[in-house]
Amino acid sequence: MDQDLQSVLLSAPLFSQLRPEQLDELVGPVDIKRYPRGTEIIRVGEPADAFLVVLSGAVKVYLLSPDGREHILHMVQSGGLVAEAAVFAQGTYPASTMATEDSTVAMVRRARVTDLLQRDPEVGLAMVAGLSRRLREFVSVIEDLSLRDVASRLARFILENSTDGRCRLPGTKTELAAQLGTVLEPLSRALRKLKERGTIDEQSGVIEVIDRDALEDLLLGT
Amino acid sequence: MDQDLQSVLLSAPLFSQLRPEQLDELVGPVDIKRYPRGTEIIRVGEPADAFLVVLSGAVKVYLLSPDGREHILHMVQSGGLVAEAAVFAQGTYPASTMATEDSTVAMVRRARVTDLLQRDPEVGLAMVAGLSRRLREFVSVIEDLSLRDVASRLARFILENSTDGRCRLPGTKTELAAQLGTVLEPLSRALRKLKERGTIDEQSGVIEVIDRDALEDLLLGT
DNA sequence: CGTTGCGTTGATCTCTATCAAAAAAGGTGG
DNA sequence: CCACCTTTTTTGATAGAGATCAACGCAACG
Description:
The structure is a homodimer of 222-residue chains. The first copy, chain A, is of the alpha+beta class and 222 residues long. Chain A folds into two domains: 3-139, Jelly Rolls (Sandwich); 148-220, Winged helix-like DNA-binding domain superfamily/Winged helix DNA-binding domain (Arc Repressor Mutant, subunit A), CATH 1.10.10. Chain A contains eight helices and eleven strands. In chain A, the strands form three sheets. Chain A has a four-stranded antiparallel beta sheet. In chain A, helix 3 (110-119) packs across helix 4 (121-147), helix 5 packs across helix 8 and helix 6 (173-179) packs across helix 7. Chain B binds a DNA duplex (30 and 30 nucleotides) through helix 7.
């Protein structure tokens, strides 16, 4: 079930360009840890001295408001990276991370990455490209939160996460709501509205797009 | 009034590490253009093949909703850069840019940066750090929009932009509102509330922090 | 079967956007 | 310095979106 650390890294945009010997250098002897579902892995504010590679299971990266509301920045599946960016801005983790399923996670310390970075310009280029992509995603999120209503955000989520008309929800609907910057109830209503209009269909966590154009209109129209 | 292109670049985090000959290489023969106040410089969606250096005046980087509301991502003063990140993620500009004052702007084409990046690992490291910092800022914005009310966002803005108890508003209050993900009226009320409580004082675009602790409480308490 | 977590639905309540109008604040030209 | 015009800001009233609260249905599971 666990993925191979090296192959995970190779499939990550940030490190896909690395040659085998560079990979070895990057990885070296790493910590690999198991976290049961619900365990906090990273707490916001801790010194950011390692990034995470999810080898099995799944984790969420999230922010908490003072009164306990949660905004999920990413859901990271097995094979994904966490905090690759935080590691470069010396400082602290800007968000918390929790295992949403039983997970095994490898930690790669900052020094290993920066060493590599300093020696190989190719690596730098790849990382710059990867970070820029992430930045662009965040701009979309800001656009959603500031300028679009819940239904539109949902429409965008469906459009961006569906492959030929289908899209599996990542985790519970409560989690999806937290990803869209809202809570369960409004999300539930938005889903219902789309279903009633015949725009989508949804059962047991799988969304089927019926009227793609209607979804796109939602993004443009309001 | 115009700033020197080279010295602007040197003072930008992204390029501050460059040696003189690298700078020359980066800059080469650049376009320098003038834009009167109110002119659109970049339109969202255009191919992102250059980044901007503001030599005089000021510009705003912003998103527009279908119904015309505006969210300002950055206000960039003379000496600042625009779209440094967009240039690396090959693709299109994710936001628009407009001159908020009469401005002169230099354009640096993508090829010049990537060339340099490929040749010098130091540059990569600096850029990676710069992008990570930007990423972190965006996380804060997402946190604001998703989890905090207008008064709290204002408090955070004041805290982060004040040097020893003072903070000059960048542009009009309408613009500040658009930066905080709201509009003029709610911002005006939030300001009044803080003034009435004796937390801050404000006149002619300058905010004076009277009770710093109260501002910080706003961020934590709700 | 009870429990426990999740989801739906309905009824408020709060915050904030919008609308409207008046008051300041800035410039401009005389 | 003043009258005039434009832009910005304040304030009030209203409306709308969404968060919260509460009740209930529904599964999975011990």
